[in-house]
Specification:
heterodimer; A: about 500 residues; alpha/beta; Amidase signature (AS) enzymes; 8-stranded mixed beta sheet; 3-stranded mixed beta sheet; about 15% strand; B: about 100 residues; mainly alpha; Histone, subunit A; two-stranded antiparallel sheet; flat
């Protein structure tokens, strides 16, 4: 049997349907890759029985001539998605042992389409982080290494760092991610994979552990743009169980993929040229502009004047929502409880939360509690929501002049584990290019576009109009075809 | 705005997170730095701007007033640290 772990989801799907290999053969190879890849710490829980069960069902269905959109495809599932009968922790000690009695809408859709699950992927705790160093289950280590020979362990990005590392290392062909301020796009850029955050409301949030509800969106991460398109089709759709779910038809994104950008206008926002950005990233951005022109697009310079306020607004709004959402972890209904000898109810809450939450989660709950507290609410929270309106207006004005925006995904390549951990602000700055689209609820994706001088992947970001995932995917495809990104990490694990 | 350790202890108490005095001391400069970052927003002129409530225009829906689930008590209690007689159990709160 040939090595199937190098194939994309579309190649696996088509080969399975054509009878070139069985779903069981696919599942067995990826299950073995997951076992062999434990040094990366990409998974919190391995679930080979789920992947194999789905594969056997897919093989039976194929024999009877009935295959689902994702029959035969094993996936990694970020540990933020509740999975019935399988521990779901959000990478926090406070949820250790929590075994949902229900299935999230997104995973329900994926499994109903025939996909299986090889395991629950490690991540930053409660999706709060940009390096995977806040997980209670240890750091995820990127499969990539700098070519300086130092072998320093690198960050896979975050918060969907288990997802990005597992895809880059070929432990899974694709995975689910979630994106609150860049948690799909930044890890995708760090590891040379593709990932899309759709328009807010496309994917149901039901059954996804909440971080910041007005920002959280699920999306796929995979090796290429086509796989992102076909997975997003399955993950999206109206769900009455999520009050913010969009009641809009889901287009056939995969079938409509086209890298011909004739007649399209690509905006280049001048405010994304930040101080201290490495020259390699500026050069890659210029290369991306040339690729867009080559694909037939017209380039227009645009201005998004409130860009520099996106990060401060985000670090009020997201912690504020988190402090409210995470109030539910009280040691009463689920998760861990810490009950000191002789403690009353209030002491039990405080002890449970002190023992259960990691340092970054506590920091954000505290910031959120502070900005929402009496006397500060208007100065911080209301002002941030007004600035958010101005950021959204900047984008609306840009759409009068262009169809998509092209920017770098992150201001640097992957950094070493430990390098930024001591300084929360330095870590937060990693999301400077991804946060604005999150605040405006816009679809945005990262595609691998090149390597830096150390041989590490760099990504370009495309941001689109509300509900126009197609334009984002098409521009991503145009980059992908021209970048010809074929680099993969050398196997050391 | 810089916060001192007394303020940190007050916020922690509101957030129901136990912190030791040493932790409160350590957190004060961290939180002050983050607040320093977000305070840049004060320089933005937002007069006449309404706070953004929903990023994508969407109408809240009403559904029929019917029972859509229920009879799942044991599933609801399945993950409780302590469940007794079909209820969540907590330390005694009334003497």
């Amino acid at each position: 049997m040939s090595d199937l772990t190098g194939l994309t989801v579309a190649q696996l799907r088509d080969g399975f349907r054509a009878g070139e290999f069985s779903a069981r053969e696919i599942a067995d190879q990826f299950v073995a890759a997951v076992e062999a890849g434990r040094a990366l710490n990409a998974f919190i829980v391995e679930t080979p029985e789920h992947a194999i069960g789905a594969a056997e069902a897919a093989d039976r269905e194929r024999a009877s001539g009935q295959v689902g959109a994702l029959s035969g495809i094993p996936l990694g599932i970020k540990d933020l998605f509740c999975t019935q009968g399988y521990q779901t922790t959000a990478a926090s000690h406070i949820l250790e042992g929590f075994t949902p009695t229900y299935e999230s809408t997104v995973t329900s859709r994926l499994f109903a389409a025939g996909a299986g699950m090889v395991g629950k992927l490690n991540m930053d705790q409660f999706a709060m982080g940009s390096s995977n160093e806040t997980s209670a289950f240890g750091n995820v280590i990127s499969p990539w290494r700098r070519k300086d020979g130092g072998n320093a362990p690198l960050a896979p990005g975050g918060s969907s760092g288990g997802s990005s590392a597992a895809i880059a290392a070929r432990l899974v062909p694709a995975a689910t991610g979630t994106d609150t301020g860049g948690s799909i796009r930044q890890p995708a850029a760090f590891t040379g994979v593709a990932g899309i955050k759709p328009t807010y409301g496309r994917c149901s949030r039901w059954g996804i552990v909440a971080f910041a509800s007005s920002l959280d969106q699920a999306g796929p991460m995979a090796r290429d743009v086509r796989d992102c398109a076909l997975l997003l089709e399955v993950m999206s759709g109206f769900d009455p169980k999520d009050a913010t779910s969009l009641d809009a038809p889901v287009p056939n994104w995969e079938a409509s993929l086209s890298s011909n950008l004739a007649g399209k206008r690509v905006g280049i926002p001048k405010e994304y040229r930040v101080d201290g950005m490495p020259g390699e990233i500026e050069a890659l951005w210029q290369q991306g502009i040339a690729w867009m022109k080559d694909a037939g697009a017209e380039i227009v310079d645009v201005s998004l004047p409130h860009t520099k306020y996106a990060l401060p607004a985000y670090y009020i709004i997201a912690p504020a929502e988190a402090s409210s959402n995470l109030a539910r972890y009280d040691g009463v209904r689920y998760g861990q409880r810490d009950l000191p000898e002789g403690a009353g109810l209030q002491d039990m809450y405080a002890a449970t939360r002190a023992a259960g939450f990691g340092a970054e989660v506590k920091r954000r709950i505290m910031i959120g509690t502070y900005v929402l507290s009496a006397g500060y609410y208007d100065a911080y929270y209301t002002q941030a929501q007004k600035v958010r309106a101005l950021i959204a207006r900047d984008f609306e004005q840009a759409w009068e002049r262009c169809d998509v925006l092209l920017t770098p995904t992150a201001p640097s390549a992957a950094f070493a584990l430990g390098e930024k951990q001591a300084d929360p602000i330095a870590m937060y700055l990693n999301d400077v290019f991804t946060v604005p689209a999150s605040l405006a609820g816009l679809p945005a994706m990262s595609v691998p576009a090149g390597l830096d001088g150390q041989g590490l992947p760099l990504g370009l970001q495309i941001i689109g109009k509300p509900l126009d995932e197609q334009a984002v995917l098409n521009a991503g495809l145009a980059i992908e075809e021209r970048a010809g990104f074929a680099a993969r990490p050398e196997k050391w694990w | 705005m810089s916060v001192d350790s007394a303020t940190v202890r007050k916020i922690a108490s509101l957030a129901r997170i136990a912190v030791s005095d040493a932790e409160a001391e350590a957190m004060a400069p961290e939180l002050s730095k983050i607040l320093g970052l977000v305070e840049q927003l004060g320089e933005v002129d937002t007069s006449g701007v309404a706070p953004l409530a929903a990023v994508i225009p969407n109408h809240l829906r009403l559904r029929d007033d019917i029972v859509t689930d229920g009879d799942i008590r044991d599933r609801v209690l399945a993950n409780a640290p302590q469940a007794e007689h079909g209820f969540f159990a907590v330390p005694k709160v009334i003497e």
